[in-house]
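Translate structure to sequence.
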């Protein structure tokens, strides 16, 4: 196994297969799939207890897509294969390089895929990357030729004899597929495109595996350094996919202030009323005025709240409650992210911890266990303290943050954390209600505030983001009202939200609402029954060849 980077003898004539790990994913099996860990980001760790209100959606393996886009070699991409489909591909084609990307819990699948690759294509070079590369003893577990940590684009360019410093080509792809809520498939029209300006986060929180993967504290990799280069790629994506919104896959997009402000300048010069959905620390958001955020089209923020009085510098001196309220009052939806099991959490104070988190009433709320992932400062610390559990005590496939600790917590006995985490999700759902209703409430606030704004870019954004779909939103709330007819507090919330929505609808649209609501109530009931009978969603396999591979 090598970690250094030679050049493949066939250079960019080498035939490459890139693959994600095999499914099905939402089941318990010997390779590391777990029912509790489906291939659906939101349902996995955000809306998991919200039943038919849960946002269901799959996301492509964007890292692999970025690699394929930047290869001059003939390259085939197999996303979400089954083991049979992967095996069939390597039995029936002669690849020179097989690249597999994975997270740590899927190490059993990578091991199996390497075995199959050795069996059917013994001369192929096997390259493994992604978060799994942070596992210190990975080379003893899997049979790969190269384990690549960090920036795979540069690595593959070197390996294929390409110019490592050439501008990065961006894949043109929507951020999600197979979207569904209330039992209704989501329209492609509202799906954002993916945008990857940078990877890594210089803040370097002690538990953060994405920051660690790209160098840790003080480090990041910019694919697009300037606002001009980013604007240019966004224009290309807008034209190809006819989108108006971008899901910005960048750990802390707003930290790069010069780039963001130049992007804002260009957006306004060219009348772009784009919406940006971003990940951001509170500290980075505070570098801007709310007016700048709104002009930049920030419409959705995924923000770490971590926990009351937590040690993290990114939250120092920030009143997160009033900050979240302020963002929402401008129509900016907030996805809060809270950690369960910080050092100071105990069975005695866990209810207070949960109550503090949910009192933010964010539109969505992610809860994750405090997990030391290899490579992070937290992992090193717990390793030194001899607190990390062995594989026998905690299988690798269970270290995904939604089930159990992989270490001895000072105050929380093994097994308690699973219930604490579920308690947090349930409490948030019971008190704050379905995320879809909270999101509609925030968008309505934004619409009321900005519908007559003198800046046409801002006006158009709210028109597109809210007004055009407002009758559907009202239909969803109508269905929700019926759903909660025996739950006083929720019924009150739904009734008041529906009244407010009616205030923004003409009489024609209002007549549509109850009709749509009836249909949605029916689809919700059907969805709830399906889920109660054990139905799970799996992504379909996607097979894509680049232009050079298509010619062969
Ligand atoms: S601010 Fe967020 S992305 Fe950055 S290191 Fe901390 S947790 Fe990771």
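Result:
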């Amino acid at each position: 196994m090598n970690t250094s980077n030679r050049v493949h003898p066939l250079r960019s004539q080498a035939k490459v297969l890139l693959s994600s790990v095999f499914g099905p994913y939402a089941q318990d099996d010997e390779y590391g799939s777990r029912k509790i860990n489906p291939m659906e980001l939101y349902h996995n760790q955000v809306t998991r207890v919200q039943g038919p209100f849960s946002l269901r959606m799959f996301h492509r393996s964007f890292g692999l897509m970025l690699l394929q886009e930047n290869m001059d070699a003939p390259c085939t991409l197999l996303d979400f294969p089954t083991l049979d489909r992967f095996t069939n591909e390597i039995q029936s084609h002669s690849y020179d390089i097989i690249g597999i990307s994975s997270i740590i819990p899927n190490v059993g699948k990578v091991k199996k895929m390497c075995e199959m690759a050795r069996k059917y294509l013994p001369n192929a070079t096997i390259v493994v990357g992604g978060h799994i590369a942070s596992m210190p003893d990975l080379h003893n577990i899997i049979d790969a030729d190269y384990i690549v940590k960090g920036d795979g684009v540069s690595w593959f360019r070197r390996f294929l004899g390409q110019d490592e410093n050439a501008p990065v080509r961006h894949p043109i792809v929507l951020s999600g597929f197979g979207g569904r809520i209330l039992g209704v498939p989501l329209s492609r029209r509202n799906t954002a495109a993916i945008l990857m300006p940078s990877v890594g986060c210089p803040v370097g929180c002690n538990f953060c595996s994405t920051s660690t993967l790209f160098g840790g504290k003080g480090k990041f990799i910019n694919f697009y350094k300037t606002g001009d280069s980013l604007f240019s790629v966004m224009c290309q994506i807008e034209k190809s996919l006819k989108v108006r919104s971008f899901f910005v896959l960048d750990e802390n997009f707003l930290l790069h202030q010069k780039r963001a402000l130049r992007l804002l300048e260009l957006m306004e010069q060219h009348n772009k009323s784009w919406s940006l959905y971003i990940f951001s620390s509170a500290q980075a958001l505070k570098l801007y005025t709310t007016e700048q955020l709104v002009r930049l089209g920030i419409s959705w923020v995924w923000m770490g709240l971590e926990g009351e009085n937590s040690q993290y510098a990114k939250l120092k001196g920030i009143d997160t409650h009033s900050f979240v309220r302020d963002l929402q009052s401008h129509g900016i939806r907030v996805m809060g992210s809270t950690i369960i099991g910080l050092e100071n959490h105990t069975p005695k104070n866990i209810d207070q911890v949960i109550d503090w988190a949910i009192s933010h009433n964010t539109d969505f709320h992610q809860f994750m266990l405090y997990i030391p992932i290899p490579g992070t400062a937290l992992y090193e610390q717990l390793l030194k303290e001899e607190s990390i559990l062995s594989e026998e005590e905690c299988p690798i496939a269970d270290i995904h943050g939604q089930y159990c600790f992989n270490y001895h917590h000072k105050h929380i006995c093994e097994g308690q954390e699973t219930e604490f985490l579920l308690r947090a999700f349930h409490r948030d759902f019971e008190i704050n209600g379905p995320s879809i209703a909270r999101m509609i409430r925030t968008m309505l606030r934004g619409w009321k505030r900005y519908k007559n704004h003198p800046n046409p870019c801002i006006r158009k954004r709210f028109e597109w983001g809210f007004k055009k779909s407002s009758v559907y939103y009202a239909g969803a709330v109508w269905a929700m009202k019926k759903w909660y007819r025996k739950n006083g507090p929720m019924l009150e919330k739904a009734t008041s939200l529906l009244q407010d929505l009616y205030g923004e609808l003409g009489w024609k649209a209002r007549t549509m609402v109850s009709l749509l609501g009836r249909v949605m109530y029916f689809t919700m009931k059907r969805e709830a029954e399906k889920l109660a009978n054990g139905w799970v969603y799996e992504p379909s396999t996607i097979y894509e060849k680049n232009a050079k591979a298509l010619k062969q």
